[in-house]
Structures are given as C-alpha cells and as structure tokens.
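Sanity check

After download, print the first record. It should look like this:
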Amino acid sequence: MLLPGVACAQAQLPAGPQTQSPAGLWTTYSDRSGKADGLVRITEENGELQGIVEAVFSPPAPSAHPLCEECPGELKNQPIVGMKILRGLRWDGGQYSGGEILDPDEGRFYRCSMRISDGGRKLELRGYVGIPLFGRTQTWTRRE
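Expected structure tokens:
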C-alpha cells in the first residue's frame, strides 16, 4: 500500500482522451519487501480522485488495526484503515496530477501524479517534494 515509504508513482496515459479510469480497488506494495502491502480504493468525485485505505497487510503493523502514529494534526493516532491517503488529483490531458498522497508510515504528505498503464491493470504513482524529479515511483495493481 502506499504506506511503507509511500511513494506516489507517476502514471501516464496514452496521448488523447482519457481511456481508462483509475477508479477501483488497487493492491499496493511495500518499497522494502516488494510484497503486497494493502488495498486502496480510488473513487472520483467532481472530476477529482481520492483514495481510501481498505486494508493493511504487511508487518510491522503492530496490531490488526494500525494507527497513523506519525501523522500530523487531527490524523495523528487515527486508524489507517478508512483513512483518505490520496486526494486532489485531476486529469490534465496526459496524466492525473495536482494532488497529494499521505505516507502513514512517515506521516508526510507528498505531491503526487499518476497514470494508468498495462491496459488499465497498473497504476503508476509518483510522490515527490518540490518537483517530480525529486521523487519516487510506485506501481499498484488493479484488484477489481
């Protein structure tokens, strides 16, 4: 899940009109182990994407209901499952951009862009500070 070392990946769609929607359930993967880390459901409201954590798989989750101990403000010590970690992304003609993603492991927000690849089966997210050059890419796989 974009949780351990949440790094939004940058996904690009083919030129032309948007052909695939990122709405749906996505499996996220740990940057450390490469194993499935959790599930995030992406929905679209008024042309803006949001992503909510539906499950956390990977240790070192200290309990079945991990809390966002490092998160700032009102998110601090809130359950990660049910937390909105992705928000504000809008289609800009080549990819989704202009949003942000939260890494609950670090309690940090990153600017984010994304694109769909592999016929809609993969979502490449890029999380960064400042400019995309200074970021990291993660690939999620469609679950449904």
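If your output differs, re-run the checksum step. Summary of this record's structure: The beta strands are 24-29, 36-45, 48-56, 84-91, 96-103, 108-117, 122-128, 135-142.
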